[in-house]
Design a protein that fits this description.
Layout: E1 22-24, E2 30-32, E3 46-47, E4 50-51, H1 63-69, H2 79-89, H3 95-108, E5 115-119, H4 130-134, E6 138-144, E7 153-154, E8 167-173, H5 182-192, E9 193-204, H6 221-227, E10 231-240, H7 242-258, H8 261-268, H9 284-287, E11 292-299, H10 306-326, H11 330-336
Parallel strand pairs: 5-6, 5-8, 6-7, 8-9
Antiparallel strand pairs: 1-2, 3-4, 9-11, 10-11
Bound molecules: zinc ion.
Length: about 350
């Protein structure tokens, strides 16, 4: 269940500048308990009803611009855009399954205390992630770089205001490509995660730019594995494949030829059907041309080395086969979410 009141996770929060506990000021704002920036340190603002836990000296966010905008998103968002994207560009059909597996896994951890999953870049509800918000037994802490009704607080994913090794799962769905320094973001996910804690990520490979000036990265499957080298990976695969890529290529070709985004979208609409061919494309060749891809795994004791990275290329078809088996094999799901013993 989404944590709406930040005081309910006071045990997890840390100063975004120095990592010390946060304290409430007489004006009911949050501030560093150690005043790490001196007595003149500004308290952390609250904008649009959300505490902004950002060290502006080390953030892509500018303090004055954030205050002036009320921590609103610089990118236009809206339900029709989300619906259009889902219908035309496709979605990851496995997200809901991985959400339920992560919930199951964190609840099976025998350690006492509440269980927590932190959702990075979760200002918009990711397709398929609803089970996370509906489980009453797991705390869902969601943040994004802008205020939205479904974030617990505003924060910069490069500098997460959460204590080391304090949470049971991290969820990075459709957000890494929009971060300036994704390696640092993943390092933050690893830092706040307990040993053996769960990780899910979903991002883009051969997808055109989504958020224009704020869209920075794409990864091959092996590149994504190296980004998450501090994790084990027990299942991975493509969310959308070459059929979707063909539909996208035709749409962008038509948009460019017609000099119009809207006309191109209309002209290309019949080709949306191409993406249904993805269901017949699950082999090595398809993985080499995925549009979107994902990984499910756990925090490892040691990072993989380059030899293991090279070996990962040959492991990918089996890991995608594992994903498809998970959908019908409860025993396998249970095996992958068993207490890790670390
Ligand atoms: Zn501090």
């Amino acid at each position: 269940m989404l944590v709406e009141h930040i005081d309910d996770i006071a045990d997890l929060l840390a100063c975004p500048r120095c990592g010390a506990d946060l304290a409430r000021t007489p004006a009911d704002r949050l501030s560093c308990s150690k005043k790490c920036a001196g007595d003149a340190q500004p308290v952390l603002p609250r904008l649009a009803g959300k505490d902004v836990l950002v060290d502006f000296d080390r953030s892509v966010l500018d303090r004055e611009a954030t205050l002036a905008s009320g921590a609103s998103s610089v990118v236009k968002r809206g339900s029709w855009r989300t619906v259009f994207r889902h219908v035309v560009d496709g979605t990851n059909p496995y997200v809901g399954m991985f959400a339920r597996m992560m919930l199951d896994g964190v609840k099976r951890d025998p350690a006492p205390g509440p269980k927590t999953i932190v959702m990075f870049g979760a200002g918009e509800e990711g397709y398929g992630s609803k089970p996370l918000y509906e489980d009453p037994d797991v705390r869902i802490v969601a943040f994004d770089i802008y205020a939205s009704p479904i974030v617990t607080f505003v924060a910069d994913a490069h500098n997460v205001p959460v204590k080391d090794a304090s949470v049971d799962g991290v969820w990075l769905q459709g957000m890494l490509e929009f971060t300036i320094d994704p390696r640092r973001v993943v390092a933050e996910a690893s830092r706040i995660l307990k040993p053996g804690g769960f990780m899910f990520t979903d991002t883009t490979f051969m997808f055109p730019l989504c958020e224009k000036a704020y869209d920075f990265h794409r990864w091959s499957p092996s590149g994504l594995r190296w980004l998450f080298r501090d994790f084990t990976v027990s299942a991975s695969g493509q969310s959308t494949g070459p059929g979707t890529m063909a539909a996208l290529a035709i749409r962008y070709l038509l948009q460019s030829l017609l000099r119009s985004t809207k006309l191109g979208q209309i002209a290309a609409f019949p080709f949306v059907a191409l993406r249904f061919l993805d269901r017949f494309c699950a082999d090595r060749r398809a993985l080499d041309a995925s549009v979107g891809m994902f990984m499910f795994g756990r925090k490892a004791l040691q990072p993989i080395d380059v030899d293991e990275l090279i070996a990962y290329y040959d492991e990918q078809p089996a890991l995608f086969a594992t994903t498809r088996r998970l959908a019908r094999d409860a025993t396998l799901r249970s095996t992958l979410t068993a207490p890790s013993g670390v």
